[in-house]
Amino acid sequence: MTSSIKEFAKKDKPYDYYPRLLEELKKLNSKLNMFSNISDISSGFPFSVKDNICVNQVESTASSQILEGYVPPFDATAIERLRTAEFSFLGKTKMDEFGFGTFGINCKEHPRNPFDEKYVTGGSSAGSAAATAVLKYHVSIAESTGGSIACPAAFCGVVGFTPTYGLISRYGLIDYANSLDKIGIMARHSEDIRYVFDKIKGSDQYDTTCIDHEIASKTAEKLVIIDQLMKGVDDKVLSSFDKLLSRLENMGHKVAHESVPFIEKAIPAYYIISMAEASTNLARYTGFKYGLKINDFSKGYNEFFTEARSSFGPEAKRRVALGTFVRSASVKSKYYEKALRLRRMLIESLNGVLKDGLIISPTMPIKVPKISEAEGLDPVQIYGMDSITAPPNLSGLPHVSFPYDYVDGLPLGAQLITSHFNDYALLDFTERWEKQFEYRFKYNVGAL
Amino acid sequence: MRIGLEVHVALPTKSKLFCSCSADAQEPNTAICPICLGFPGSKPMLNEEALHSSLNIANALHCKINKNTYFLRKVYFYPDLPKSYQITQLDGCVGLGGYVQLEKKKVRIRRVQIEEDPAKIIREDDYCLLDFNRSGIPLNEIVTEPDIESEEELREFVNELRSILYYAGVDIDKEMKADLNISLGTERVEIKNVTGIKNLIDATRYESKRQSELLSHNQNIKKETRSYSAESMSTVSSREKETDEEYGFIYEPDLAVYNTDGIGVLKPQIVSDIAKGYAEKYAASKETLKELVMFDKESLRLLEYGVERSKIGTVISAISLLKRTGSTSMSNDNFGKMLEYMNKGMLLNEDTIKALEQNRKVEVEKGAVSSEEIDKAIKELISQRPDLVKEYKTNPKAFNFIVGIILKRYKVSPKYVSERLAEALR
Known about the structure:
Chain A is an alpha/beta fold. Chain A has helices at 4-10, 17-32, 77-82, 126-134, 150-156, 190-200, 227-230, 235-250, 266-281, 301-309, 314-326, 336-354, 371-375, 379-384, 390-395, 423-436, and strands spanning 35-38, 45-50, 87-93, 139-144, 159-162, 182-187, 222-226, 254-258, 357-362, 399-407, 410-417. Chain B is α+β, with helices and mostly antiparallel strands. Chain B folds into three domains: 9-148 and 246-259, no CATH class; 270-362, no CATH class; 368-426, Arc Repressor Mutant, subunit A (Orthogonal Bundle). Chain B has 14 helices and 18 strands. Chain B has helices spanning 48-60, 151-167, 197-216, 271-282, 286-293, 297-306, 312-324, 332-343, 350-357, 364-367, 371-384, 386-392, 396-410, 414-425; strands at residues 2-10, 64-65, 68-69, 72-75, 85-88, 95-101, 106-116, 120-123, 128-131, 138-144, 177-183, 189-195, 224-229, 234-237, 250-251, 258-259, 346-348, 368-370. In chain B, helix 2 packs antiparallel against helix 3, helix 4 (271-282) packs antiparallel against helix 5 (286-293) and helix 11 packs across helix 14.
C-alpha cells in the first residue's frame, strides 16, 4: 500500500490505540522536542501543524517568546479544510523562530534528528519533519519561505512538498515574508501528500494572493542539472547523487546540464526580499495586544515597545535590523528594488529551462550536520546553505525533496523542481520513485 | 502665502477597507475582528466598494486614473496602529495629476489615494484608551499642490471640494481632517491633523499672521511641524525632529495589483460649473443657483428638469419653497405640475406640496390658491371686521390676528399673507 491514509482507514485499531500512541509520542517528544504541544486525540488520521500556522484555540507562537500566550480565535484556511472526520489535529510542531533558520536550532529546546539525536533536523519546519520521521501514520502541514520544507525533509528522510506560490491559502499563517511564504506538506508517502494537497488547495476569500488554477502533470524525460547549483556541494553528497542519477537514467530519464544566468544571486535576492518583508511583519509585536504582554504602563510607548521587542531571538533581531535597512529610502533602489528585479529575471530564465525538463539536484549542499557543527557557523555561512533551495522558493516554483540514500546512518534528500502549476508532475515522479526505493525510519510510532 | 492641503475623508462604504466589520459602529470595540486588530495570521482583503468610490472621486477631480493601482506598507510605531504599518498608496495610487477649478484659478491635485484609518485614541488624564472600531475604516486622501494663496481661496477651494465629494457620494457631514502646509517665506510649516473646516480656516489665519509677523521683524520662519489648538485658536510647535521621516515603504505583498480598466466610474458632477452654465444661459444669479444645488442632489435634479420647462425665476422659487418645507422626494412630473401652478400665480401650501410628493390628487381649491384669491379674502375680512382694522393701529397683535385668520383658511406662507395684508391696509 502506498497511501498510509488509505491503509490506516482499512486497518482495525485496538481499543487503546490512541492513548498508547499519545503515550509513546510524548515519551519520545521529551527526547526529540518535535512538538510544542500535543492534543489528546481519540480518532482520525493524525496531522501535525507547524507552529506558525494558526489553529483555533491552540497556542500558536511560531516558536517565538514574543508570541507566548497567543491563542488565535480562528483556524488557518488550510487547517479548516483539513479538519474533517477523517483527520485529527495532533499538535503544533517546533520551528526556527518565525521561520528564521536552516537547522531548526533557533528556538528554545530545539528538535533533534530522529535518526541520531546529535544531529540537526534541518529547518525551519524542524518539528514537522522530525514528527513525520517518527510517526507511522501522520502528515504534517508545514511552510516554506526559502527552503523550510525541503531542507528538514531531506535531513529527516521524509518527503517534503512545496506547491506553486498561491495554490494553498496563507490565511492563518503567521507571516515571515508574504510574497515568498508557501504552506506545504510533509509525509512518508507521496500519495498522502497528493491527497492532502487536493483537500486544502484552492482560492480563499481571505487570501487575495490565493487562486484556483488547473494543476498539470506534464512529465518530462529530461532531468536538468544546473551546474552553478552544484558548486560548493560536498564531495560525499556529490558521489551519492551521481548514483541517484544513474539509477534515474536506468528508469528512462535523460540527464542534461544547463546554466542559468544570475542563479547564484538567488541567495542575496531572497534574503533581501524576505528580510524587508519580515521586518514589517514583525513590527506588530509590541507587547500589548497579544502574546507576550508588558504590564508596566508607566513608560512612554517607545520604551514600552522596545522592552517588548527585546524578547526577539538574536536571528529575529538581525533580520529586523537588516530588513529595515534594505528598505530605507536612501538604499532601497540598491537592495530591495534590485532584488525584486532579480526575482523577475530568475523566474523568466528558470521557466525557460523548465519548459521541457525537471531540475534535479541534492536538496542541501551538505550532509546532515551535527548540532554542535551547526552552532559553530556564522550567519553568512548559514545563509549560504540555502543555495539550492532558494532559487525555486524565490521564484514560487513547486518543488519536492525526497530521500534517495543513507550515508553513515543519515538520510540524503534530492530536490526536484518543475514549472508553475505543474505540481502533480513532482508527485507523479516521487510516487514512481517510491515503487523502487524504500524509505527507512528508526521509529514507527503508531504502527498497526 | 502658499497653502497646500492633504485632506482625509472617509469613503462611503458599509464595511471596513480590509475586512467585513461595519464601518459605522458606535459602541467602542464592537466592530473588530482578527484582520482590523492585526492579529498574527490574518490577511487583508480589499473592499472593492472603496476602490470604486475612490475612483469616482479621482475622476471628479480630473485626475489621471492609474490603470494598475496597488498598495504599500508604511511602517511606523504608534499605539493606534495595530500592525505597526499602515496599508496606503503612493505612486500606484488611484488618481494622479488633477485639479479643482476655482473662480480665478486652478488648484492642482497631486494625487488621490486610499488608505486605512488607525484606531482612535481617547486620552484621559493618566491613561489612554483605544477604540479599534476606527481601525481599518477606508480613508481617501487628497493631496493638493501648494496653489492656494489666500484665505478666500482656501474657503472657495474647500467649498468646491466638499461639493465634488458630496456628489461623488461622500458623507460630508462626517469630519474632514486635513494636514495644512503653509508658507509665507521659503520654509514650509506643516500643521498636522486639523479637524473641521472652521478650524482649518482659523489655523490658516493664525499661522499666516504668525509668519508675517516673524517676517516683518526680519526673523526666520523655521521649517517645522505644528499642531493647532481650537481652544486657544493658535498653533504650537510639535517639537519633532525635522529630518524627513523614514517609513521604509515596501509593496503590500498580501494584496494584488488591481486593474481599474473594467471599473465604470460615475459621470462627475462639478456643480459650480453647472450653476455657472445656467446662470449665463438664463441670466440668473450664479450665487443663488450655487447655494441651491452645491450640496443638494435633489435640487440639482429638479433644477435640470425645471429649466427646460419654465422660467428660471419660478424654478428657483419652487426649489426654495421645497427646501423650506423640507421636501426631499418630489418626482420630476410632480415638480412640473408644481411649476405649472406657480406660473398661474398660485400659492402652494405645505399640504399641496406633500400631496404632490406622495402622488396624491391635488385639490387645487383647497391646497393651492391664487394670489388674487388671497387678496380677495383679505379685502373681505377688512370690510367685515372694521373693529379689528381700527384696533390694529394701536395694537400690533391685531395685525397678526388677521393674518392668523387668513392662514387658518389657506395654509400658505405667513410672510406672503403679511405682505399682502400690509399692502391692503395701506
